[in-house]
Amino acid sequence: MKFVMDYKKYAMLARQAAAEGCVLLKNENETLPIREGETVSVFGRIQFTYYKSGTGSGGMVNAPYVRSILDGLKECGKIRINERLERVYLDWIEKNPFDMGEGWAQEPWCQKEMPVSMELAKEAAAQSDLAVIVLGRTAGEDKDNSETAGSYLLTAEEENLLEAVCGAFTRTVVVLNVGNIIDMKWVDRYQPQAVLYAWQGGMEGGNGVADVLTGAVNPSGKLSDTISEDIADHPSTANFGDANFNVYAEDIYIGYRYFETFAPRKVKYPFGFGLSYTEFETVVTDFCADQETVKLSVCVTNTGKRDGKEVVQVYVCPPQGKLGKPVRNLIRFGKTTVLAPGEGEDMEFSFSLKEAASYDDGGATGHKSCYVLEAGEYGVYAGSDVRSARLAGSVFVEELLVTQRCREVLAPVREFSRLRPVKASAGEKNAAIPEKDAAFAPFTEGREAAPLRTVDLAARIQTERPDGAAYTGDRGYQLSDVCDRKVSLEDFLAQLSDDDLICLTRGEGMCSPKVTPGIAGAFGGVTKNLKKFGIPVAGCSDGPSGIRMDCGTGAFALPNGTLLACTFNARLVEELYEMEGMELRKNKIDTLLGPGINIHRNPLNGRNFEYFSEDPYLTGKMAAAQLIGMEKYGVTGTIKHFACNNQEYERFSVDCVVSERALREIYLKAFEIAVKEGRAYSIMSSYNPINGIWAAGNYDLLTSVLRREWNYRGVVMTDWWARMNEEGEEGTRENTTAMVRAQNDVYMVVADSESNSSGDNTKEGLERGAITRAQLVRNASNICTFLMRSPVMNRFLDREYDVCEEQNRFEGVDMTDLILQQTEVTDGCMLDTSALNTDKGSNSTYILDFQERGEYVIRFRMKSDALSLAQMPMSVFVNNHLVKTITITGTEGKWVEREVECRVFSSLQNYLKLYFGESGIEIGEIRICRV
């Protein structure tokens, strides 16, 4: 494939997305945009060090640059910055440097803020037209937020900053460079004139924010989550963060589905809300519907004075019936083009009424395990957010319709009560619903027992397991023969021995030398024998916010999931991920480990920045857009984490206790959309158990739903070092028998597949009859199908060469080395580690003079105090050639040894360079020995 990698276009699209994802919550007296020629005082240290992403695997992109908000404001050329205030900040920051923390999941949520006195604020106000305060937060993998100062709440220093600046200036703008929603009570306390959620916009994020602040781009972002008055208002908060059981007692009522049904007064900013610098009129011009299809036309007119875009959201309000339902359910959305003042645009929406069906998991309607449209009125609402949407028309269903018959899957075994609506009395109605929200049905919170499992899962698995797969031995077939339709995949796989099939279920990593240096994993033909049959090795890299290459290779850092969802612009997201697909192709990576499409069940989840929304439809559409974009260059994304990875604390083991209805309508729905509309063909299962069965070995999740119901035809891989279990037992990394049985195809990751370095029990399970050869063949078929549709197949066969012409390439990552020492190397000599810099992104180089040429081994004694799932890579280069990337996890302070072998061809002036992709590693000893 020949393609042009235009980095200028890439940056332009990312910048546009970063701007369109900004959500303007408040703008009194036209405080924004900043007028041309005005002077701005910028407060807050994060103006200098923009958070491009959250932390963990989803943020470890070696970006060539990161534009800060201050950079963007300076470069726009139309406003002035209060340079005196800037110098005050720079002097303070020199004495109070950015705190990187101690590595993976040990970074602070926020940074120490410079104290700002009322005197300093008034001095700045006298020299400026307005103030911009930039506040920042981070969180991520293995590190949830908490309801504490510096995380969900503001610190005392931030409160003082707001009080001083808002008191001194008549125009104050607060910009939130955050990955998650934070507490917003301070808006009422300090009354800033404008508030902007800027999220985390990747390496072009600062430019995008500046475009919005200065009016180069009119804000058009809409909230992908509800912002409540208090964190306790979210019904999931009561059960969030438990170490053992995360009970989804709120059931299907999360986010706006809860607030609009039960508690509209507890909403500070509703789902889908976002202001513009102009005004729009949204009018439904046509509505027609029957019991199959609903169609409506909406005309959006710019009635203000500036160019801008507007979003239209369409919701369904179903009858309560016997099941009970949220009063609003997003079913379509669209975004206009840029409309000039007075210009209008007609938008057409249509959907099948079946999409509004509810799942009966207990038989209340007489149709257990079915999707049903209960009899009654289905109201269709359209508007610019969930609260302002007005009735467009209604559909009356005369009698209950069964839209899909399913079978019971994934039902809970642990008793719990779940939320359901109860009709409020007149007095309760008046107390609960403001007059302006009278259109919303008045319901109070009732409870009912969640239906428990009634099927014999073990019997189902036994009855449905395949058997009788033949073994023919080597007949000379290659996987390319299957590609060329000379032989069937079944006949090809019949050649593979049981041991070969087992090796095929093991992916290798981190940073396997068999694929692109520094990426997360390799799977497929990872052994010599598998390669003999012409099975290539595919490479996968963390995302979802760009390509992670732990050897230090640079890549484009993309805006994060929440920001992209707030654009409500699926076409823009698709265009951006076309560029990502091109970059993956250029780097010979077959799948990005993303998008992450778990639901924002609670604002405190640390990985919310990677995910899109509290709404499954919006999440699914954004995921589908990314997949379609990447697919244009023959690569794909691995959608994750399937399913219910909604809490980072104890994510390996906390049991998600959840009803089948909530799973189907909320937590699986986005994956279903990504599979059916986005044509997903790679999925990652999650760490956690779901109703007692770990996801990586969950048969109903991975076979009954994914493959039987959704007709999925792709590969499923585990999350890295996942656990599996037999029901009633604890999960372990070794129980891959359960993984194979569930049709989770690949275990990620092991050091060496052939030697079974992780000690898994697949072969033992086969020998004792717990799994069959046919199940191994089935999984192998899924893996080979993925490989045959991936670029690696043609690369392996030398049938196609990727020719990438690069244009407007940006500067690479700063790889300036710290030269530590020049050493004469003798057998067994030790290098001085006292000055070794192991901070994230650092390079340290030793100049080595060897007495003799030949084979050497370099042994590293290292440790980390980080958590057990922390990933801390160190890449070892000899004479600028990457020899190996060593990735250790948290060692609980215990010393471990790792080694690297290398060949020295010249005795003098050899360079040993160590690159650290993450902080948190302590090197105690480096010893070099002759082999």
Provide an overview of this structure.
This protein has 24 helices and 44 strands. With 931 residues, it is an alpha/beta fold. The strands form 14 sheets. The protein has a 6-stranded mixed beta sheet with strand order 2-7-6-5-3-4, sandwiched between helices. A 5-stranded mixed beta sheet has the order 36-38-43-40-41, with no helix packed on it. A hairpin with a 2-residue loop joins strand 31 and strand 32. Helix 1 (7-20) packs across helix 15, helix 13 (498-504) crosses helix 23 (773-788) and helix 17 packs parallel to helix 19. The longest helix has 17 residues, at 570-586. The protein is globular and about 75 Å long.
Largest sheet: 6 strands, mixed
Number of helices: 24
Helix content: 10-25%
Share of β-strand residues = 25-35%
Structural class given helices, strands, pairing? Answer: alpha/beta
Distance between the amino and carboxyl termini: 43 Å
The multimeric state of the shown protein is: single chain
Give a count of the beta strands, DSSP E runs of length 2 or more: 44
Radius of gyration: 28 Å
> What's the pLDDT, averaged over the residues?
94
Poorly predicted residue ranges: 429-439, 812-816
Instruction: Please state how the strands of the largest beta sheet are arranged side by side.
Output: 2-7-6-5-3-4
What order do the helices and strands come in, and which of them pair?
Elements: E1 2-6, H1 7-20, E2 23-27, E3 39-43, H2 69-75, E4 80-81, H3 83-95, H4 118-126, E5 130-136, H5 156-168, E6 172-177, H6 186-190, E7 194-197, H7 205-214, E8 227-228, E9 245-247, H8 256-262, E10 267-269, E11 280-289, E12 293-302, E13 311-317, E14 329-335, E15 344-352, E16 358-360, E17 370-373, E18 376-383, E19 390-397, E20 401-405, E21 417-423, H9 426-432, E22 443-449, H10 457-464, H11 479-483, H12 489-493, H13 498-504, E23 506-508, E24 521-524, H14 528-532, E25 537-542, H15 561-567, H16 570-586, E26 591-593, H17 616-631, E27 636-637, E28 639-642, E29 655-657, H18 660-667, H19 669-676, E30 682-685, E31 689-690, E32 693-694, H20 699-709, E33 715-717, H21 736-742, E34 747-750, H22 762-767, H23 773-788, H24 791-796, E35 803-807, E36 818-825, E37 829-831, E38 843-850, E39 854-863, E40 872-878, E41 881-888, E42 896-904, E43 910-916, E44 922-930
Parallel strand pairs: 1-35, 3-4, 3-5, 5-6, 6-7, 9-29, 23-34, 25-26, 26-27, 28-30, 30-33, 36-38
Antiparallel strand pairs: 2-7, 8-10, 11-12, 12-15, 13-14, 13-18, 16-17, 17-20, 18-19, 21-22, 24-25, 31-32, 37-44, 38-43, 39-42, 39-44, 40-41, 40-43
Helix pairs in contact: 1-7, 1-15, 1-16, 2-7, 4-5, 13-23, 16-17, 17-19, 20-21
